[in-house]
Amino acid sequence: MQEHNENFNQLAINVDLDHLPVGLYHGKMGLCLYFYEFARLTSEKKYCIAADKIFDDTVNSVTEHIEIEPSYIKAGMVNEKFYGWGPEDFELYERLKILGLKIHRSEAFVSSHS
Predict the structure, then answer these.
(1) pLDDT band for position 24 (cuts 50, 70, 90)
(2) Rounded Cα distance, 29 and 6, in Å
(3) Left, alpha or beta for 42 (phi > 0: left; psi -120 to 50: alpha)?
């Protein structure tokens, strides 16, 4: 069984990502999660490296036609389970800090219309 897993993993690591959809069930994100989990279970770095490569390719595929900062995607984007205005911003700020990402603040814009 272990040899079967290793053969599958080698095949999956070498798959041409350009021919896979982004999706979770039959696509890049599912494969990415599979390798992150396999790396966790086996403590083999090569699977984490494969997952990182697939994740980067997925982010590039998703952001190819829209302007989303890759670090925003890596941080998990916005938690939509909050109610009201503001808490999701503070939570995103904390996740960005945990990842060690630099946070840029723009200068306040005050509208001339009241």
Answers:
(1) confident
(2) 20
(3) alpha
